[in-house]
Amino acid sequence: MILLVTVLLLVLFVAGVLWRLRLSSHREAVSSHRLSTVLDRTESGVSFWDQSGRLTRFNDRFQEFYPTVTLNRGLEFEDLVRFTASRAVFLVGEAEMDNWVREWIDRFGQSSQQIYRAPDGRWIDVRTSSTVGGETLLMYTDVTTNHTAAVVDTTRDIRAAEQYASLEMLRGAIAIGRSSESFHEACREMLEL
For residues 51 and 135, is the Cβ–Cβ distance under 8 A? Predict the structure, then answer.
């Protein structure tokens, strides 16, 4: 009788473990599917790199930044960085190329953000960050519209300040012209503006 109860408890225990494993596997599959859906729908190019610097996952948008090469899982981060610099994925000057590559490799696994210009005139926001699992996330986002708007806003602000200064000078000249008794005196005062 004790043997029968022990066997029954053992069978129930094994069934419970198998059920939990199946449930865990199902949850992992659902999570993986959700991540794939998010990666496929984002407008950013996204890639994940393991702790040893090898590509583990990327979306189609990330591949679009490298149209002349087929990216494969297992690609080394250093190889991608060297390709990025040498094939002008981003504009990097010849003189600064070695330092640029070294900085990128040294920064692997750390959070960072830079904006680079691409040869086709686009501005690309490049972000890296670490995940909880120790992977490194590398994300490219085209921010040309935002960057261009910021440049236009800055240019507009500078132009408005210049126009305001010119308007103030004109107001001062008009005031001098109205209050002066001679033309030559008014000209001398206007030159002092």
Answer: yes
